[in-house]
Amino acid sequence: MGTIALSEGVAADLTAGSTLIEQERPRGQWARAWDRFRANRLALGSLVFCALLILAALAAPLVAPHHYAEVDYTARLAPIGAPGHPLGTDLLGRDIAGRLVYGLRTALFVAFGAELTALVLALLVGLVAGYRGGRVEQGLMGLTDVMYAFPSYLFAVVLVTVLGRSLFALILAIGIASWVTQARLVRAQVLTLKQREYVEAAKAMGARGTTIAVKYILPNAIGPILVTTSFAIPAAISAEAGLALLGLGVQPPTPSWGAMITDGMRYLLAAPHVMVFPATLFALTLLAFTWVGDGLRDAFDPTAEQR
């Protein structure tokens, strides 16, 4: 009986010891970042709001009460709460709620497409310049400096004018005009990370060139890149709306928040809801993505745990 009790005591000690080891095991960077992000209620709520916006844009035909091009000639400039039109209609009798949802789809499609384009260009230029160095770096960063000196919004206007008014042209124009800042960030991260011990160890094991840059350097630079991407998305939404204000947005009747705001300004006194709803949703969307970016910046801040 004493032997059995002793064995049970040893087993209990081993179980407690293994539990203690598991509790003391350091958590990864992403887990710690998520904990800090989750503690920021404003950022977490904004992330939920952005997720709902994305779902609404994807399910626009199911969410929108009417198609964006559907016209009700008997209800032009209908007020809020009109039968069948909870947010009213515009001058042509088109449902504002439906156009808001489809305008959200346009804004997010252009924003994410443009940011993907910018991110690909930034990664190519930043990785190659930072890792190769020498004349390659000088040439690529010289190109980056030239692009940085040219106003990005004006460059987007020129590209849209040349390429024409289409979703593809907007995505390409905004993306090409906005990759410079991220390219500089990627290069700076690569210059720092390529001196780390794990990169030297990878070289000692025979890894070379693209393998080191993509497999060892890029994953450790994702945090700062993710932060800049979260800030670049609302900037792309603003750029799309700004181009629409200039008459360089998507071709009608495809809705755009910028075009809806421009049209609504003409009837601000007679029917303010035509402008107020798209302007309000536009502002809330920008704030939500910006607050998500603030939360990500704090979450990936290496000094956050020391505060």
From TrEMBL:
InterPro entries: BP-dependent_transpt_permease, MetI-like, MetI-like_sf, OppC_N. Coiled coil: none annotated. The chain crosses the membrane at residues 42-64, 107-131, 152-180, 225-246, 267-292. PROSITE patterns: ABC_TM1. It comes from the Bacteria. Residues 104-293 form the ABC transmembrane type-1 domain. It is a multi-pass membrane protein. GO terms for biological process: peptide transport; protein transport; transmembrane transport. One of its GO terms (cellular component) is plasma membrane. Keywords: Cell membrane, Membrane, Peptide transport, Protein transport, Transmembrane, Transmembrane helix, Transport. It is found in: Cell membrane. Belongs to the binding-protein-dependent transport system permease family. OppBC subfamily. This is Peptide/nickel transport system permease protein.
